[in-house]
Amino acid sequence: MTNTSSKSLRQGSVSRVQMSKQHFKVCFCFKRMFRLKVAEPPHEICTIFDAYSQNGNMSMDDLYTFLVQFQGEMGGDATKKQVQAIFDSLKHLTIFQRKGLHIEAFFRYLLGNLNGPLAQDQVHQNMNSPLAHYFLYTGHNSYLTGNQLSSESSTSPIIEALKKGVRVIELDLWPSSKENDVLVRHGGTLTSSVKLKACLNAIKEYAFYASEYPVVITFEDHITTNLQAKVAEMVNDIFGEMLYRPDSEHMEIFCSPELLKGKILISTKPPETPDFQGKRPEERTQNLHDYKQDDLDDEGEEDDAIGLGYRDLIAIHAGKPKGKIENWLIHHGQARRVSLSEQELEEIATKHGSDIVRFTQTNLVRIYPKGMRVDSSNYDPMTGWMHGAQMVAFNMQGHDHFLNIMQGMFRANGGCGYVKKPDILLNVDKGFDPRGTRLVQKTLQVLVYMGEGWQSDFGRTHFDLYSPPDFYVKVGIHGVPADRATKETRTIEDEWLPVWNELFSFPLTVPELALLHIKVGERDFSGKPDFGGQTCLPVSELKEGIRAVRLYDRKGEIYNSVRLLLQFQFVNNTNA
């Protein structure tokens, strides 16, 4: 960035605004008038505009220079196309002039959707590494519509999850009352059930709605061998060529997301079978044929034979860890999935943090919520991520803080549901201690300029019946323990268009895992603050410069108009 950029990160003066009059009704007998504001660019933005324009006019060449020198764009043909797109987007505005942009048009560009905070809105990471090298957007009890004890089971939450880019769907399989069909439900609770066939059809229809990368279905299997055969037939019939079948049960390394595009993978604990292991599916099928030709009389053996069809579906073998921790944390030659509760992870990580990281370089680890979370709340996902766990399973039914953090992580890499793990978690020679002490690698500076859009997305009396709102912003880092911090602006009273001009600095020891969480609150001096929007962004994909950061509601749905104008800058630590 230029010197102008450095200066712009300092606290500036209050923005100028134009006034227009509107009325608020108070009681039934009179009207109280408030002055609603139409934003004008803050003084700092005007200063930057002056530095990159000539006589109050910013030409295409001037805008190109601004994008490269101030905003940190790469330059070349891509940036020239960006300049053209910006000019085209402003043609409908009366403030646009053919020769260039006036300050008002420049300001609208800065606050517009073409000036977002993330580096790319498409897949840009290397997708050719083994599956174990990625974090996967993972759901827990994906079929539940609400709490874990008494809510309805349905295909609706499965569909909603897939539409949002979730790549791992969990289904609990139970026999029907007559034991002639397979149902999906949360066993041992009052939750209702939904037929497995309906769930599989929903997955088939929406699996690649938001992403072309593979969907993993994890079965928690509570069914008999005969019903396993029924599931095998059902899965084959519904998914057909979409279903991925590995060449061998004993894979030493998983395939890549790129190779598995458009595929459905089944992951569950394999049933016990005769010793047909290590052979290709067609060989196992021939063995099974020969096995059946012997006119098996033993019912147990026959059940085992039937179970082979179910076993052949399994792309990712799963199982609970057995024996001493030191034993199952060693890679035994076959890549597999291990499931741990959030509590088990915490306990094991206290002494074996680096071992877990090493294990996840070739194997998959799934973390799931503890049983006490009957309200479908969630835990801190960073504990799993910083230990390399790929499948941090979340209840998608709630709207808690940690779900916002989860959504922030998977806004990375174009929102495809797969995020490449940082090199520190994949370095075989140099082990990573998640709780170790490290030097600061870089510092993220965040300048909070102003916000707008609440007038459009909220009713005029939503926050206060008798006066405009009193907004403040919380800005924080969620990452490894050493990097966590939260800062808060002052409260701007009686303002629909608050201007803060406050600068915050966040030293980062592991910037690769850091997430920037932003939340707007409306101060209620007589009670709990009102919610004014939030977002969470992966620090590794933030673009430097002045950016329009759109906010989301509690459910994770983006607002049409509410946004903040922020500036980001990274300062590298020369001693790191």
Automatic annotation (TrEMBL):
GO terms for biological process: lipid catabolic process; phosphatidylinositol-mediated signaling; release of sequestered calcium ion into cytosol; response to stress. The keyword Transport does not apply. Its main location: membrane. It comes from the Eukaryota. Residues 339-425 form the PI-PLC Y-box domain. Keywords: Cell membrane, Hydrolase, Lipid degradation, Lipid metabolism, Membrane, Transducer. GO terms for molecular function: phosphatidylinositol-4,5-bisphosphate phospholipase C activity. It is an enzyme of class 3 (hydrolase). It is a peripheral membrane protein. Its EC number is 3.1.4.11. It catalyses: a 1,2-diacyl-sn-glycero-3-phospho-(1D-myo-inositol-4,5-bisphosphate) + H2O = 1D-myo-inositol 1,4,5-trisphosphate + a 1,2-diacyl-sn-glycerol + H(+). One of its GO terms (cellular component) is plasma membrane. Residues 277-294 have a biased composition (Basic and acidic residues). The keyword Cell membrane applies. Residues 270-302 are annotated as: Disordered. It is found in: Cell membrane. Residues 420-553 form the C2 domain. Its cofactor is Ca(2+). It holds the Pfam family PI-PLC-Y. This is Phosphoinositide phospholipase C. It comes from Lupinus luteus (European yellow lupine).
